[in-house]
């Protein structure tokens, strides 16, 4: 959350093997009534206030793309899914639920299993590829709906590798319009640089990082990588 500079009432979603959506709830931990977890957001120094968050964890998202590549051989690389899915305008009625290891937030059903329905003789691999992308967005939307029920509407910042897929982000915006993509999608690493900077410089509690600080923190991160 530091990498996206999420303050109270702001949220982020990481799109990787499995998305993790967190909403900063400020200095008071909130117990969810809608299938979410209460977790720590950040604490920037021994005298600083602790920030808490509500979290929705999704176990399978980008991993479903890996499954198309490694188990079905529909694509040769993960990046191919965007062009393949873009060959069709819809899924043709195909729906995919990637519950390979059950469903996490907000359903918490360990007995759930993967489903692909709506297949006809006209279904091709492009329809399946698009259904996989849609399944990622629908799972995120389930968590966002739960967060909306807890705290109302909010701006969602997204990051990590899968956000480079423009079609995926287009589908996600169609389900949740209040979405913002960063210039630098590797903000998790950027957040680690933020935390290091706070530790080394012992900044004042009020000096929460802003987007304009990115140049400084990227230089720190670069030096760390070269060390």
UniProtKB/TrEMBL annotation:
<protein>
    <recommendedName>
        <fullName>Carbohydrate kinase FGGY C-terminal domain-containing protein</fullName>
    </recommendedName>
</protein>
<keyword id="KW-0067">ATP-binding</keyword>
<dbReference type="InterPro" id="IPR018485">
    <property type="entry name" value="FGGY_C"/>
</dbReference>
<keyword id="KW-0418">Kinase</keyword>
<keyword id="KW-0547">Nucleotide-binding</keyword>
<comment type="similarity">
    <text>Belongs to the FGGY kinase family.</text>
</comment>
<dbReference type="InterPro" id="IPR043129">
    <property type="entry name" value="ATPase_NBD"/>
</dbReference>
<dbReference type="Pfam" id="PF02782">
    <property type="entry name" value="FGGY_C"/>
</dbReference>
<keyword id="KW-0808">Transferase</keyword>
<feature type="domain" description="Carbohydrate kinase FGGY C-terminal">
    <location>
        <begin position="12"/>
        <end position="195"/>
    </location>
</feature>
